[in-house]
Write a structure and sequence with these properties.
It is a single chain. The protein is α/β, with parallel strands linked by helices. It folds into two domains: 39-68; 72-287, TIM Barrel, CATH 3.20.20.190. It has eleven helices and ten strands. It has helices at 2-15, 20-31, 34-68, 93-101, 135-142, 159-168, 185-189, 212-225, 239-247, 260-268, 279-287; strands at 78-81, 106-113, 119-121, 133-134, 148-153, 175-180, 198-201, 229-233, 251-255, 273-276. Helix 10 (260-268) links the parallel strand 9 (251-255) and strand 10 (273-276). The chain is globular.
Length: 291
């Protein structure tokens, strides 16, 4: 009986898993003297300070390197005012008007469709016939403005009705599509927007773009889809990607560039377009480049 009890207790004890953190705390409790603790804390603090200094120096060096580069642009370089730029609420008439008033090159509009077929500006899902702001109200403002329109397609079912409105307000030639992923290409080609320019939303590998096989894959992809170029998050963009696309006659658009250091990095790789919620910051970086 006693042996059985001891055996059970032993099994229970073995069944309890002790985490590495608990083991570490027990070790410290048994072995750490006040003097050792003092030195240990100092070493940790010194290490963290050293890491922070290295990061700070590296960041300064990289930023300085960008400033020392000669800034140049591809033909027809543009800056797109992201929906909600100029401290406005996204996908509102105020946001569109602010882009026009500030002479933005391009204004971005997120496109969805209500159940009743009304095309609206909305980043989020549209469930009722009251959701979103009618795109037609924005087109009334844009038809007489000197500005291009980036239509970020959130759902392809809106394409036919969207195109009819573009024709109504004579905006087809000033508009292009983004937000188009591989799964959306067929729907675009079968829609009324089939002949409009569009960027393919894609996430290129910054590492594999150095290899010929992957580079050819990207070009084959663009040829197959008929896209004018790649639209990607700035994290996936690189000078190698930019050079490849331009050499083959395609474009590179990057989003969403809202920090000064990121702006310098993107300007250095020469994209065709930068989308940002802070167009004034991009302009400031360009104006002060190298100063």
């Amino acid at each position: 009986m006693c042996r059985l009890l001891c055996s059970d207790l032993g099994l229970c004890f073995m069944a309890e898993k002790i985490s590495k953190w608990v083991k570490f705390k027990r070790f410290l409790k048994r072995n750490m003297t006040p003097t050792w603790a003092k030195h240990f804390g100092y070493q940790v603090f010194s290490f963290l300070v050293s890491v922070a200094m290295v990061i700070g120096v590296a960041d300064y060096a990289v930023t300085k390197t960008y400033d020392e580069m000669e800034l140049s642009f591809v033909d027809d370089f543009t800056v797109t005012a992201h929906s909600g730029a100029y401290d406005t609420e996204m996908n509102t008439i105020q946001s569109v008007q602010a882009a026009v008033d500030n002479n933005a090159d391009i204004v971005e509009l997120d496109i969805r469709q209500r159940p009743d077929g009304t095309v609206v500006m909305s980043h989020d899902f549209v469930v009722t016939n009251n959701d979103g702001n009618p795109i037609e109200e924005a087109f009334v403002i844009l038809q007489n403005a000197d500005i291009k329109i980036n239509l970020d397609i959130k759902e392809t079912k809106s394409l036919d009705n969207l195109y009819n409105l573009l024709v109504k307000y004579n905006l087809v030639e000033r508009s292009f599509l983004t937000g188009i992923e591989m799964i959306n290409v067929k729907a675009v080609k079968e829609s009324a927007c089939a002949d409009m320019d569009y960027y393919l939303n894609y996430m290129p590998s910054r590492a594999r773009v150095f290899f010929d096989e992957y580079r050819q894959k990207l070009i084959d992809l663009l040829e197959e889809t008929g896209a004018v170029g790649i639209n990607c998050n700035h994290k996936y963009a690189s000078s190698q990607l930019s050079s490849l696309l331009h050499k083959k006659g395609y474009k590179l658009s990057v989003w969403t560039v809202d920090k000064e250091r990121t702006a310098k990095k993107m300007l250095a790789i020469k994209p065709d377009n930068i989308t940002t919620k802070n167009p004034d910051m991009i302009k400031k970086v360009i104006d002060n480049w190298g100063k």
